[in-house]
Amino acid sequence: MKALQNIGGQRIWARLGVFLLALVLAVPAGTPPASAQEPAPRRNLFDLLFGGPRYERYERYDPYQRAPRRRYDRNGSIVDVPARPPRNRTAPGRAAPPRAQQPVVPPAPEPVAKLENAKQILVIGDFMAGGLGGELENAFATSPGVAVSQRSDGSSGLVRQDHFDWPRELPLMLDEAKPAVVVVMIGANDRQQMTTGDAKEKFRSDAWFKEYETRVAELAGIVTSRKLPLLWVGLPSFQSPSMMADAVTLNAIYRNQTEKAGGEFVDIWEGFVDEDGKFVITGSDVNGQQVRLRGSDGITFTKAGKQKLAFYVEKFVRRHVGDMASPDLVKLDGSNLPPLSTLPNAAGQTVPAHPISLSDPELDGGKDLLGAAPLPAVAVETPRDRLVKRGELPPAPTGRIDDYRVPAAGSATR
C-alpha cells in the first residue's frame, strides 16, 4: 500500500516539474526595447503570476480627412464641387438665438496740457472720493482750462479723527491747491462708535447724531468761509438694508448742514436704485446700456459705476467753471499768434496792421456804427403795433370771405 502511494506521489511531482520546465522555456531570454514603430509585447502568464514588467502602448492615429468630392463631366474631366454650407442645427421654425454682443468701449481721450491759469477742482474724502476724483480727471482730460486733484484717504471719515483729522488737514490742502471748486464725498466709514472727549457715543444714539452734525458743519464751514463753491456728494444706496437706512439718515444731515453753510448737495441716490427705490447691482450707465455698477460686496463701485458717479458731479462742476471747461480753449502767446504787422494788401504789399478796438475803432468815444441814422421824428404805426397796443386788426381785403363791410350804393353785387 505504501509502495503505491510513493509511486503516485512521484508521478505528481514529475508532472509538476515538467509543467514548470515548460513555463520557463516559454519565457524569452531577453525582451528587446519597444520602439515607436513596433507594438509593445503582450504580458504572459509568468508576468501575471510574479509581477513582470509592464509595457505601455503608444498608438498614433492620423486625423481623418475626408476625400474631396469629385464630379466628372461628359468628357471624363474632373469638375470641382463647391463645399457644402455648414449645417443649420437650429430646430425648424425657430430662429437662432442672437449672440451676446460686448458693449463697445470708446478709447479714453488723450489728455491735453493744462493752462497755467487752469481752474483747480479739489476732491476730498474716503475711498469713494478716490474713485470719483479719478473719473473726474478723465471727464476733464480734454479741457485745458480745468485740472482735477484729489486728496483722499480710503479709511478716513468724520468719526475716527485719530486716524485722519479732516478739519485740521483741509485748510492746508486749500492753501496748497488753491481750488476754484471743492468736492466732498465722505461718510461710508462713519457707521461706528464715536469718541467725544472722555465719552464714547454708540452709533445711532441722539448724542452721536448731534456730534456728527457739528463735525459736518465744521468741515463745510472751512470751505465756504473762504468764499469757495462747495459740492457735497451724498452717499449711494447699499445692498445691506441697515446700511441703506443709515445712508438715508446721513444724507439728510449732509444736505441740511451743507445748505446752511451755503454749499450745494449733489444727490446721486436715484442713479443706483431701481424704480421701486431698491438697491441694484446692474443698471444703466452714462450711455444707457445695462452694465454692472456695483461690486460683489454691495458697497464699492465698478468702473462704469464710478463713471456714472462722476457724471452727476460733472454737471455741477461745469456750472461753476464756465467756459474754462471748453476743450477748444487754447493758450495764445507769441508762439501761436499770426504776425499782425505783415498782412498783404490788394497789391500784394505788406502794410502795417495794428489791433483796433471793435467797440470804438476811432478811439473818440463814439458808440454808433457807420451808416447809423437817427430815427424818424414821426414813427409810422405798423399793423403789429395796432394789434398789440389796441387790439385792432387791419381791414380784410375787399371780396374776401371775412370782409363784412357794406358795399357802397350802386356798386356791383355778386
UniProtKB/TrEMBL annotation:
Residues 88-103 have a biased composition (Low complexity). Pfam families: DUF459. CDD domains: SGNH_hydrolase_peri2. Residues 382-392 have a biased composition (Basic and acidic residues). Keywords: Signal. It comes from the Bacteria. Residues 62-107, 382-414 are annotated as: Disordered. Transmembrane segments: none annotated. Residues 1-36 form the signal peptide. InterPro entries: DUF459 (IPR007407), SGNH_hydro_sf (IPR036514). The keyword Electron transport does not apply. The keyword Signal applies. This is DUF459 domain-containing protein.
